[in-house]
Amino acid sequence: MAATEKRDYYEVLGVPRNASLDDVKKAYRKMALKHHPDKNPGDGRAEEKFKEAAEAYAVLSDDEKRGRYDRLGHAGLGGMGGFDPSQFADFGDILGDLFGFGDLFGGGRRRSNRPIRGNDLRYDLSLTFEESVFGKEISISVPRVIPCATCSGSGAKPGTTPATCTGCGGRGQVRYSQGFFAVARTCPQCGGAGKVIKDPCASCGGSGRIREEKKLSVKIPAGVDEGSRLRIAGEGEGGFNGGPQGDLYVFISVKQHAKFTRRDYDLHSEQAVSLTQAALGA
């Protein structure tokens, strides 16, 4: 595309000429999310808009290039190489560095091996009116997923270790050319883990996780009401890579009583009486 045919970079990103670097980044992120080729396969117009936005960002995010562009327009970038598409070959890494969401497009980073906290779980518990008023200790059974004790969550047979994936060299992604860019996708051979299990654990089948029914004794305090929530720390699903377990949240519902209703901490009851009883008492 000749310099005379290029659109104004500020117009491309939809920002004013005095836009801050943060504004430029936000505008570019919005454009990249909308027009990325992975989200618009086969859409040539979207790909062009994506390239155009990347080119605009490459200039406006660089103080020196932006200064020359502001003074001389596109012609001022001639001696600086303008937009170098090779710098955007690993698009996921760039988005991850700038915005923290490189994995959204399957960027070039290996799946994180840092400890990750397990998911929180919800358990719905129905109480009688009396149980909610006076409290009670109740046994519950919670289905959850935890790391396999046999392989310590690795998925590999005890005494063995997962091998580096040959399909991606341990990166977790494979790259291929798509027009102007090199795009990274999750490796189909290892599912993005960067490793493959040749001898899977017999207990978990190589998943590193097992499902169990955890029996717990929950102490319901007196005075709980409809919609009350109890948190039981560390009784959610197991973490990943040695991360802590999530929490269990018990949500309370209370069955209606035949005679009594509750309003905050007061009990109410309606009783029909005759006129005589109302006047003279009963």
List keywords for this structure.
7 helices, Helix Hairpins, 282 residues, 3 domains, three-stranded mixed sheet, HSP40/DNAj peptide-binding domain, alpha+beta, flat
How widely separated are the two ends? Answer: 97 Å
Overall mean pLDDT stands at 81
Describe the global form: flat
Quote the CATH topology of the largest domain: HSP40/DNAj peptide-binding domain
Instruction: Give the structural class.
Output: alpha+beta
Would you give an account of this structure?
There is one protein chain. The chain is α+β, with helices and mostly antiparallel strands and 282 residues long. It is 24% helix and 23% strand. The protein has 7 helices and 11 strands. It has helices at residues 9-13, 21-35, 44-60, 63-72, 91-99, 129-134, 275-280, and strands at 121-127, 136-147, 163-164, 173-178, 181-186, 195-196, 209-220, 229-232, 248-254, 260-263, 266-269. The N and C termini lie far apart (97 Å).
Short description:
The chain is α+β, with helices and mostly antiparallel strands. The protein contains 7 helices and 11 strands.
Q: What's the arrangement of secondary structure elements?
A:
Elements: H1 9-13, H2 21-35, H3 44-60, H4 63-72, H5 91-99, E1 121-127, H6 129-134, E2 136-147, E3 163-164, E4 173-178, E5 181-186, E6 195-196, E7 209-220, E8 229-232, E9 248-254, E10 260-263, E11 266-269, H7 275-280
Parallel strand pairs: 1-9
Antiparallel strand pairs: 2-7, 3-6, 4-5, 8-9, 10-11
